[in-house]
Design brief:
TIM Barrel; single chain; 20 helices; alpha/beta; Immunoglobulin-like; Rossmann fold; 5-stranded parallel sheet; binds alpha-D-glucopyranose; 3 domains
């Protein structure tokens, strides 16, 4: 849990300017600033024939809208800003938003893939590129990063997350906020919006939008740290989640929005509701009317109403009736005005569209970055008999599967601004990389049906080739929002296709393009090599081929646990010991399954091998406020340069409150040449040793601590240190 204070971007100058604007606004204008609509939602009224958008344009003209999202480009943005400038009294520019989750037109790997790179700085760069690209289209507010801790691969939105660990997610949260909040110095800037605050990823049964029930302890130990990192990094807004926390949906949850966010953390940015979440207060059954939903949200501290229209419809009346103090409205409007001032919108409400050549130059650099990010996101899970890398000299390759000649699905979820025509498919990537080798292709089967019609052609392609690459996985529609699954298997007839092809006895590499961990224990028997390639975006095919043919040595590590079966879920490394650790009868175990993961958190292989040695601590005991340094030497004992993610885990052996078996407290990604070594050190102090005690106080308790240093959460060498 971080203890630093948030960056104060809300300077006196910004606040004074905001107060000055506020002083001239009517109550309706103030509430208009707290109102946001989805431009993409445009039904036609069957009776009147009037479109929703026509009504919305009129609302904007009357100064009753503060933010719009899902616009289609700079021209439209400038038109609406002009409408404001020419028709409203206070001429307050719109804040234009968009879900820029993993790229804009240049689609980068899904966040769960980028998390596999264990390289927050890479995410900073992709986030900055995405903001630059979307800013040129008028977007000043990106609804990212998504930093929900996700331990349940049934939940489709795990694809948008950084995975199961608070430290890794926190590092990415900080980098993503810093990368996505840019300022071109010429009056164009963007705000980030970490989401979904809070605990949305703990939806029961992995079913999206389902009930969330967690202790204040799990909230504070696991869920909140990444959001605190995001706030301390200067996030200008945060999005409240749909779900309840301790019985109250987030957009009406004063404990979340005021006690923690404002009073404890000093957050000064905008709190936005999620889509129509005020309406959902009625569905949840915690508001009996639109007015009550409106009242609960504003009094709990929700500044911006996304798309329900409740604030605009009811807040002026509630203020005039004295049920909501106007000071509550003023507080929210001040934050919204302050962010708009900070973004330079008052000086420059219009988007400056870059010139053709500037856009083309930027695009080329984004494409390069997309390939770099995709390569680093790939995780090598199995490589028996050095099946990989494939040879480029002469060996013929069969490329088989529904994700092979496929440009749509590698875009992944939340990639509306991407263009499948610009995606490099795995088949293309292999064709371009294979050099002299000949390539035979067959789809084999689809993901949507159990038909085996394509099997014969696939077997024929495999028979003609020396080696087989299977392109397997999920369609992009199978992960993301409202895409929970009860199975973690391969959709359609893919498993049967694998079994049929494997029976030919050729070397088989399975490439998995999915939005979530899949539970495929049987695949170990059928594929000599397995590569987890997620949904990697526009450069998918080149990046995977770079790895398959050895032009890039994979260094990815899993940011989330891969289960043996869906029955084990939720399964995560950060688990407690319990009073009966898994063993035989009468222990915490299954009679029909292992309790171990298929692949543990932090796992990943390389084309080279690494050895760990000389693990030492500069002192073996420290005071509660002391610090120690742990050192390790990592040697590359293979023949080629490789990247290793050195991971440090901690266990508090005896504490006043149960502690996880292991907790990631540090990591470092290093590139090491063949027969070379790297010496690494990690600081361990209060930040790493502290627990939240039974009184919910942060404290370092005396006792023994075990530190592990190793390549993943299941392996490593340990040392013991004592706090006295
Ligand atoms: C969606 C999502 C949220 C997104 C918002 C606007 O329902 O929950 O992540 O930013 O609506 O599209």
């Amino acid at each position: 849990m971080t203890t630093s204070s948030p960056r104060t971007w809300m300077t006196t100058e910004i606040l004074d300017q905001a107060k000055q604007i506020l002083s001239g606004m009517s109550l309706e204008e103030k509430v208009g600033q707290m109102t946001q609509y989805d431009w993409g939602y445009n039904p036609i009224n069957p009776e009147t024939g009037v479109s929703q958008r026509d009504l919305l344009v009129e609302e904007i003209r009357q100064g009753r809208v503060g933010s719009i999202f899902n616009l289609a480009g700079a021209e439209q943005a400038n038109e609406l800003q002009k409408l404001i400038q020419e028709n409203t009294v206070s001429r307050i520019p719109l804040l234009i938003g968009r879900d820029v989750i993993h790229g804009y037109k240049t689609v980068f790997p899904i966040p769960l893939a980028q998390a596999s790179a264990w390289n927050p700085d890479l995410a900073r760069r992709t986030a900055e590129a995405a903001s630059r690209e979307s800013m040129a289209d008028g977007v000043a507010w990106v609804f990212a990063p998504m930093i929900d801790i996700s331990r349940d691969p049934r939940w489709g939105r795990i694809a948008e997350s950084i995975g199961e660990d608070p430290l890794l997610t926190g590092e990415y949260a900080k980098a993503w906020v810093e990368g996505s909040q840019i300022d071109d110095g010429a009056g164009q800037a963007t705000a980030s919006c970490p989401k979904h605050y809070a605990a949305y990823g703990l939806a029961e049964a992995g079913r999206d939008y389902n009930t969330v029930d967690l202790s204040d302890r799990v909230l504070r130990e696991v869920i909140l740290p990444p959001f605190r990192e995001a706030v301390d990094a200067g996030a200008l807004s945060i999005m409240a989640s749909f779900n309840e926390v301790n019985g109250i949906p987030a957009c009406a949850n004063e404990y979340l929005l005021k006690t923690i966010l404002r009073e404890e953390w000093g957050f000064e940015g905008i709190v936005a509701s999620d889509y129509n979440a005020l309406q959902e207060l009625i569905t949840h059954g915690v508001a009996g009317s639109e007015e009550e939903a409106c009242e609960r949200s504003i009094l709990a501290g929700c500044d911006m109403d996304m798309h329900s229209g409740f604030y605009m419809r009811h807040l002026p009346k509630l203020v005039r009736e004295g049920r909501v103090p106007e000071s509550a409205v003023d507080e929210s409007v001040l934050r919204i005005l302050a962010v708009k001032i900070k973004l330079g919108l008052f000086e420059q409400p219009y988007v400056t569209v870059p010139t053709e050549e500037a856009a083309a130059e930027a695009r080329a650099s984004f494409i390069e970055l997309a390939r770099e990010a995709a390569r680093e996101s790939i995780v090598l899970l199995r490589n028996e008999g050095k099946t990989l890398p494939l040879s480029k000299q002469g060996a013929s390759v069969a490329v088989i599967g529904p994700l092979a000649d496929n440009r749509k699905d590698p875009l992944g979820c939340w990639a509306f601004d991407g263009n499948p025509e610009e995606v490099v498919s795995l088949l293309e990537g292999i064709r371009q990389a294979a050099g002299a080798a000949s390539v035979h292709y067959a789809e084999g089967c689809s993901m949507e049906s159990d038909s085996e019609e394509g099997f014969e052609a696939a077997l024929e392609a495999a028979r003609q080739a020396d080696v087989v690459v299977l392109a397997l996985g999920e369609a992009l529609e199978m992960s993301g929002e409202s895409r929970s699954r009860t199975s973690l298997g391969l959709p359609g007839a893919q498993r049967k296709l694998v079994e049929a092809v494997a029976a030919l006895g050729k070397p088989v590499t399975a490439v998995l393009l999915s939005g979530r961990p899949l539970a495929l224990p049987w695949l170990q028997e059928k594929a000599d090599a397995i590569v987890q390639a997620w949904h990697l975006g526009v450069q998918s095919g080149h990046a995977i081929a770079d790895v398959l043919f050895g032009d890039y040595n994979p260094g990815g590590r899993l940011p989330v646990t891969f289960p043996h079966n869906v029955g084990q879920v939720p399964i995560y490394y950060y688990r407690k010991k319990t009073g009966r650790p898994p063993g035989g009868v009468y222990s915490s175990y299954y009679i029909d399954s292992t309790t171990e993961p298929l692949f543990p958190f932090g796992y990943g292989l390389s084309y080279t091998q690494f050895e760990y040695s000389d693990i030492t601590a500069d002192r073996t005991s420290i005071a509660a406020d002391g610090k120690l340094t742990v050192s390790v030497t990592v040697t590359n004992i293979g023949e080629r340069v490789g990247e290793e993610v050195v991971q440090v885990y901690l266990r508090d052996e005896v504490a006043s409150v149960t502690q996880p078996l292991k907790k990631l407290i540090g990591f470092s990604k290093v590139s090491i040449g063949p027969n070379e070594s790297a010496a690494l050190t990690f600081k361990v102090g209060m930040q790493q040793l502290a627990i939240i005690d039974q009184h919910m106080k942060l404290i370092v308790e005396p006792g023994d601590f075990t530190l592990w240093i190793g390549p993943n959460s299941s392996e490593g060498q340990s040392i013991t240190v004592k706090v006295v």
